[in-house]
Specification:
Helix content: 40-55%
Strand content: 5-15%
Number of domains: 2
CATH topology of the largest domain: Beta-Lactamase
Order of helices and strands: HHEEHHEHHEEHHHH
Largest sheet: 5 strands, antiparallel
Shape: globular
Distance between the termini: 50 Å
Length: 244
Amino acid sequence: MGVRAGGGAEEPDRYARVAETISAELRGAGPAAVPGRLCAVAVTLLPVDGASVSLRGDAMPVHLAASGPRAARLSLLQATLGDGPCCHVLVTGAPVLVGDLAADDCAGRWPVFAQQALGAGVRALYALPLGGAGVCVGTLDLYRDTPGVLTDPQLRTALVVAGVMTGALTDLPYDPRDGGEPWLSGLAADHDRVHQAVGMIMAQLGVGADEALARLRGDAFARGATVLEAAREVVARRRRFDAR
């Protein structure tokens, strides 16, 4: 667990330390590395054990980066299920702050996700919207192994990180003269695979897009795969959903 952001310091001093930590972590980072480094910053500044960031997609969240494998898996799990705090934030644009995933209301609200997260050792989750002016472009999800709430100063620190993340996602430059790929091109390709798989399932089963996506998600979860992994199998014609 990272160093806690203190709540007793004066606001200007605390924000200066937060800004200094973020600046130091991002120094020299290329566009593609920035989201992952900001997830690492969140773990350093806050009493959390993991962080991930997802973007709003047409039909499901698109996982972008995480501080580690477990946080990435939890992010992908929410995309696979189409449920969880991240999905709720993308719909409402409001933060979801869960102090204890073992509470009865969480079991009723996100029964499968809560069970899976608890099984992975996560007890608290704080999902913050990315964006501004009423437009939510993604979420920053913070995971914690022990139950508890963020103090007001800690929440303000988390919102600062979310604000920097929003700026990173909207303002980072791409210079084709560098010979690299657009930094979100891989994500777009992954999302296209899901859409392609949904289209193939629609043709195989004669169902609509929503039903096809639900079938793909259900198949992925039943086999312990992510929805992207399941989509790749469908696109590669290694898995079909009809009787043939």
